[in-house]
Write a structure and sequence with these properties.
heterodimer, A: alpha/beta, 10 helices, B: alpha+beta, 6-stranded antiparallel sheet, 4-stranded antiparallel sheet, 14 helices, about 40% helix, elongated
Chain lengths: ~325, ~400
């Protein structure tokens, strides 16, 4: 099983005629059972096709052509146009939006997230590679061409959540090599404000009975790890979590940003060492090296859940 | 990008928030003229983008225009934490009855801006929050609905402020919140916000940080303030090596081969992508390695860009070898990076097999890439070698090599 998407998920690609978007569309069509990419949108390109996918001027046209509501959209338009594209998707009934675009100002991101929340939609990203359910479907560039994605991702019990797109694949590949497949891997994006944080995805994994453990990739900057630690403590989660923290060297360099826009440390709580301490307090194991993750999560899954005296199914069904 | 105080004050003034009748200058004689115009005691403040200027002697009080000139001369020559001042602010010394704090920042968890207000100003707001938490009010506001004054009223009233002070503060907080949104700020802060004897309020110092990604839509404001497009105002000035890295990245628009940061070690790093670079940099250091630099490759850069970056790093004084390492790539092509780094060695008359300590980039087009590396005898690794092990191998090689 999976979270967010499954074999039946329909989606469009906004900005589909761009070079990267054309590749991404091919990859999604080729992967697993083949994603149901039911349309693409690029203003002024009505009537074209991208790998057999019909192109429209508006999301409304794509929905009308499809005949029933379209569930998702992958947005790959330039930063200046992203907010409008996302608003268009939301107002046309799209419920899951993966924003690939980088360098979108926070004000725009906050506005997109706020509208999505009002309309009961969910945003993944921006600055992310999307979602993959191994051997079933991928939505976004995650894992690359179908052949490469199949090499790194295998089906199994681990949910992966990562602030880095590339590291989602690196960690999943390491898990796969150790016979620990993934239920769903989500690249959540590297910006200071993103649609879905660890704590917001946890209830979905909690409700997915096939997921038995969580592996996360984290970085300095922001309060998302503190939020996860709090969520885990308050919700008596059945899922063991192993975290990997990159960018420990940044603790010595306050005020500098490396890697992703979101890594800028703005307060005491955002440093790597502070986050490691907070995660550990919540019973989340923090790995020193990627290759240690498989044994650590395996050990945690074998042990009775430390945080949940009430048994293993407490969180299932909560939303 | 941070603003200097004199710029932040200008932004505040434009938003209709009262400020003192200050003047900015880079010339001591002009400081005297400004003090003369003000006609009373003044404060001379160093304009630097670093904290602790008061302690460092960057803020001085003057009773006469002559004193203002002499203080300005001293302060203009005073380096603070490695920063030379951009100029000095000559500010009337206000008779303040009470100091307040007003600020707006983003809350990444709630994904909304949050107003912060306190009747205890003039000191670090984090200190107030720790010592007198009931004196700090916070209130989020919508990014979609128009801002409403009652929201400002609520955050101020929540700290116990009432009477005419409340009514005079509401428009100031409202204007600050709107200014924050309209200008794509990531921080705006008036501290202290002074209440004068007549009950009016005036901004006595201001901090602002505009989002780099949004600078393009505030060109007019930045031009008015005299901020150059090339000014990045990082925590420290870019070094010539880092500027050369920016040039490499700017040579064409395909992919990224940049974000170069200089360190003083002997192991050159050609690494990527965002998260992979952070992981690899940590790993090199964990094994006792001394990186010469940080950088990021990603998004499938051209051969010439990868070559340019590798050349830059190889030519850095003190660099013995480079390690070329990335997390598994799906978009960037292994063979293109391999071609780029080998070309860099050859163009510098070096043997790739000796100069490249290790090449660990698995993923898209890896068969083609590995073939090229084999041809030149370069030590490479596939995904079965972890990022950590690749870093260890690179460090071992460089420590075994003649200094």
């Amino acid at each position: 099983m999976s979270i967010l998407i499954d074999a039946n998920t329909t989606f469009i690609v906004q900005g589909i005629t761009g070079r990267e978007a054309v590749n991404l569309t091919r990859e999604c069509l080729d992967y697993g059972a083949g994603a149901k990419v039911v349309g693409g949108v690029t203003p002024g390109r009505l009537g074209r096709e991208v790998h057999g996918v019909p192109v429209f001027d508006t999301v409304a046209q794509a929905v009308a052509h499809h005949g029933t509501p379209i569930y998702g959209s992958v947005v790959t338009v330039p930063p200046a146009f992203t907010k409008d594209a996302v608003f268009e998707a939301i107002e046309n009934g799209v419920k899951l939006i993966v924003i690939v675009t980088e360098r979108i100002p926070r004000r725009d991101v906050a506005q997109m997230v706020e509208l999505a929340t009002l309309r009961g939609a969910r945003i993944i990203g921006p600055n992310c590679l999307g979602i993959i359910v191994p051997d079933v479907i991928k939505m976004g560039g995650i894992g690359g061409p179908a052949k490469n994605a199949a090499q790194a991702y295998t089906p199994g019990p681990i949910g992966v959540i990562s602030r880095s797109g590339g590291m989602t694949t690196e960690m999943s590949s390491t898990l796969s090599a150790a016979d620990l497949g993934q239920s769903t891997a989500v690249s959540i994006g590297g910006d200071a404000i993103i649609g879905q944080s660890y704590a917001e995805l946890m209830p979905l994994f909690e409700a997915d009975e096939h997921t038995r453990g969580i592996v996360i990739y984290t970085e300095p900057g922001g309060r998302m790890e503190a939020e996860l630690a709090r969520w885990v403590t308050e919700n008596n989660s059945r899922l063991p979590i192993v975290a990997f923290m990159a960018g420990r060297f940044m603790d010595e360099m306050p005020g500098m940003s490396f890697g992703h826009a979101g890594t800028i440390v703005e307060g005491k709580e955002d440093t790597a060492s502070e986050k490691i301490a907070r995660l550990a307090q919540a019973g989340i194991a923090v790995a020193e090296r990627i290759e240690d993750i498989p044994d650590m999560i395996r050990a945690k899954m074998a042990a009775p859940a430390t945080g949940s005296a009430g048994g293993g199914t407490t969180g299932v069904g909560t939303s | 990008m941070r603003f200097f105080e004199f710029e932040a004050r200008e932004v505040i003034k434009r938003a209709g928030i009262p400020v003192t009748d200050y003047g900015f200058t880079t010339d001591p004689a002009e400081a005297r003229a400004i003090a003369q115009r003000i006609g009373g005691p003044t404060v001379i403040k160093s304009q630097v983008l670093t904290g602790g200027r008061m302690k460092a002697g960057g803020v001085k009080f003057a009773d006469t225009p002559e004193q203002a000139e002499s203080h300005a001369r001293d302060i203009l020559a005073l380096e603070i934490n490695g920063h030379m001042p951009r100029g000095v602010l000559v500010d009337p010394k206000a008779q303040v009855e009470q100091e307040y704090y007003a600020g707006v920042v983003w809350d990444g968890i709630r994904k909304q801006p949050v107003m912060i207000f306190s009747p205890v100003g003039g000191i670090d707001i984090e200190q107030v929050a720790e010592e007198q938490p009931d004196k700090v009010g916070r209130r989020h506001f919508s990014t979609i609905l128009p801002f409403a004054d009652f929201q400002a009223k609520e955050v101020i009233a929540s700290t116990g402020v009432t009477g005419s002070a409340l009514n005079r503060l509401v428009p100031i907080m409202s204007k600050l919140a709107k200014l924050f949104m309209d200008n794509d700020m990531i921080l705006t802060e008036i501290n202290p916000l002074g209440r004068l004897a007549d009950g009016s309020f005036v901004a006595l110092d201001a901090h602002m940080d505009i989002e780099n990604e949004a600078r393009g839509r505030h060109k007019r404001l930045l031009a008015d303030l005299g901020v150059g497009e090339e000014e990045t105002r990082q925590a420290r000035e870019a070094t010539p090596f880092e500027l050369a890295g920016e040039q490499v990245d700017a040579q064409d628009h395909r992919g990224v081969a940049g974000n170069v940061t200089e360190f003083d070690g002997n192991l050159g790093l050609v690494i990527g992508a965002g998260g992979g670079s952070l992981t690899l940099f940590d790993a090199v250091r964990a094994h006792g390695g001394k990186p010469a630099n940080y950088c990021e490759i990603g998004g499938n850069p051209s051969v010439s860009k990868a070559c340019g970056l590798a050349k830059l790093v190889l030519q850095k004084p003190g660099v013995d070898k480079i390690a070329v390492m990335m997390s598994i790539v799906s978009n960037t092509r292994v063979d293109i990076v391999a071609r780029g780094v080998i070309k860099a060695c050859l163009e510098l008359g070096e043997d790739p097999a000796k100069k490249i300590a290790i090449f660990r980039i698995p993923g898209a087009w890896e068969e083609e890439g590995f073939k090229i590396l084999e041809r030149y005898g370069v030590d490479y690794a596939d995904r079965s070698v972890s990022l950590n092990d690749a870093a260890r191998r690179a460090v071992e090689k460089i420590q075994g090599s003649p200094a």
